Amino acid sequence: MRIFHVSDCYLPRLGGIEVQVADLVRTQREAGHEVSVATATRGEPLPGVHRIVAKMPFDLPVHPFGVGHLTRALTSARPDVVHVHAGAVSPFAWMGVRAAWRAGLPCVVTVHSMWDPVTRGMYRLLRLAYGWQRWRLVATTVSNAAAAPIRAVAGPGVPVRVVSNGLDLSGWAPPPGTPDRREEVHIVAVGRLAPRKQPVRLLKLLQAARARVPARIPMRATIVGDGPARGQMERFLERHGMTGWVSLPGRHTREEIAKVLASADVFVAPAPRESFGIAALEARAAGLPVVARAESGVADFVKDGVEGLLGRTLGDLARAVARLCVDAELRESIAAHNRATLPAAGSWPTVLEGFERAYEQARELRASRR
Question: Domain of 10: which CATH number?
Answer without folding.
Answer: 3.40.50.2000
